[in-house]
Amino acid sequence: MEKQNRSGTAGKVIRCKGSAVCRNPGEPLVIEEIMVDPPKAWEIRIKILCTSLCHSDVTFWKISIGPFALFPRIFGHEAVGVVESVGEHVEEFQEGDMVVPVFRPNCRECRDCKSQKGNGCSIFGDKLVAEMPRDGTSRFKGMNGETLHHFLSVSSFSEYTVVDVVHVVKISSEFPAEKACLLSCGVSSGTSLMLMWMTGIGAAWKVADIEEGSTVAIFGLGAVGLAVAEGARLRGASKIIGVDLNQEKFEIGKKFGVSEFINPATCGEKKVSEVIKEITDGGVDYSFECIGLASLMEEAFNSSRANWGKTVILGVEMHNTPLAINTYFLLRGRTVTGCFFGGLKAKSDIPILAQKYLHKEINLDGFITHEVNFQDINKAFDLLLEGKSLRCIIWMD
Q1: Are residues 343 and 210 in contact, defined by beta-carbon separation less than 8 angstroms?
Q2: Is 30 exposed, middle or buried (0-12, 13-18, 19+ CB in 10 A)?
Q3: pLDDT digits (tens, 9 = 90+) for 303-316
Q4: Containing H/E element for 300?
Q5: DSSP state, residue 17
Q6: pLDDT tens digits along 153-198
Q7: Distances (CA, A) of 285 to 207, 213, 332, 382
Q8: Which of 74, 163, 282, 300 has the smallest C-beta neighbourhood within 10 Å, fewest atoms?
């Protein structure tokens, strides 16, 4: 406990001068001074170094009705920071550790966490909680005493935040902070989020398990799709086909291994799946849907090879439209599977991927297109909404 007390703030409420609070859906965030409680048992308080914005923040920011429309709220779930203090029973972390908070819980004790067949957590992973997962209360208060809601168990749009230990991973202090943000996130919401780098890489490596020489089609070359391409490239795929309506995505995609590009708007009367079958002699070995539209999921499935093609669904269908596929093709050997956080287990897999970056085995740098200071956080929203950025790093200091 000696290290915990060096900060002089351990066990005390912190008056946090920088927090971006969303008071009403769709409105610009407001930089406010707030109070951040000390961590309770099995929790740590983190000083955020930098954070980034993804589509999931934007999706929930827009929601005005229903159980997820909780305001005022502190968004943000892709970040890196330093442990300021720890609560009771915390042995995994200590003050000064560099950490990455993650949306996907990993308690390492339940049946699901111990299994290698998936990456769920049967204790903490069943539902999206608005506050802290163990006691359902918030650690944030406005200066007038009002409760400020958490987001995805992280809430990184604040100089200080409190996170449960099941949502935190320790990484090497050698890791560049702005790149560490890209290791943090892992759920998709509509055309959303960074499912991003972690989910894309994991989908290619763990869910699809792409072999050398395989052919791959990726529907949607946002950050998720580009991460899939990077994973496929590292696995030695012989042909990586990118599908996107934005022609500029081809040049970006080349940096991550995309070898061919299809713009659906230029296919004439042909379906994209027909074009893919023509250039792959019958269909790709692996197809990935990274947008969140049932029609594209069907096209991705139809683009896969008849006898063994595997389709991985990464996007959450934004209109709740069911997927319609011909079961005859399933009988012939094709498969469809979903993917959440790339099938990766946060506490064991994130440190491995971090080391691969340090050894220059994987490309993270290409995902960062913009950087802003925290006072300009709303500019990050504008850049994402205008389709101008993949990832915008938001620096606290």
Answers
A1: no
A2: middle
A3: 999 999 999 998 87
A4: helix 294-303
A5: E
A6: 999 999 999 999 999 999 888 888 877 776 665 323 222 333 455 6
A7: 13, 10, 14, 37
A8: 282
